[in-house]
Every structure is written in C-alpha cells, then in structure tokens.
Amino acid sequence: MGPKLVALTILERDLPSGRSLRITADEVIEITRDGGLEVRIALTAAGPVIDVAAGALRLEGTELKVDCDELTLHSKTATTLSSDGDISLQAKGELIAEAEMIHLN
Predict the structure, then answer these.
(1) What whole-number distance in Å separates Cα of residue 28 and Cα of residue 50?
(2) Fewest Cβ atoms nearer than 10 Å: which of 18, 33, 43, 92?
(3) Into how many domains does the chain fold?
C-alpha cells in the first residue's frame, strides 16, 4: 500500500457557526464541524458530486425532479409517500412489491 495522497489546501477558514470551510487544489469544497464532514462538493470530470451528512435534509420548492440512471431510497425505520393529489407508479418492466403483508384499500 502506497502513501496516502493529501490534496493541497488552497483556502481554509473558520466560520462563525464553529464550522470550517476548506477548498482544495483538486476542486473539492468541504464544510466540517468538530472534525466531522457535513458537506462535500467535488467538482469531477463527470460533474459535481455532493455529499451531505445532516440530522435532517429538507428540499422545498414548487417542483422537484430527479432524473438519473438508478435511484435507491432506503430508510432504517419507516418510509412514507403521501400526496394531496394522485400518486402514479409506472414501470416499463416489472413492478415488484415485497413485504410481510401488503394492504390494498
């Protein structure tokens, strides 16, 4: 195993909130608090990669769209999908539902 490469830091600042901001020469922006990573944005050839570690993540807007090759959602205790209007599930392939019990209506 070779030596660990460490990116050259080009800017590092302490923020009033107690967090630290760091920008590296390999185009990575990191916000940390108490040594733990909260936000990391890596500007890669394929586009930005954003990592967020938070107690809660809220996205609000009049419209939210996710367009990707694969989407995986996982929760440790419960998942709720709700709407004040209709919910539509569509698949060009199979739709698979697995559970100990499935309630329909």
Answers:
(1) 10
(2) 92
(3) 1
State how far the alpha carbon of 46 is from the alpha carbons of 38, 43, 49, 61, in Å: 22, 8, 9, 26
Task: Enter the pTM of the model.
Answer: 0.70
Q: Is residue 105 part of a domain?
A: no
Can you say whether residue 14 is alpha, beta or left, with left for phi > 0 and alpha for psi between -120 and 50 degrees?
Answer: beta
Domain containing 27 equals 9-52
Residue 73 lies in a domain: no
pLDDT at residue 3 in the model: 62
- Kindly state whether residue 90 falls inside one of the protein's structural domains: no
Percent of the chain with pLDDT over 70: 94
User: Is 86 part of any domain?
Assistant: no
pLDDT at 81: 92
The dihedral through the CA atoms of 2, 6, 49, 81 has a sign that is positive
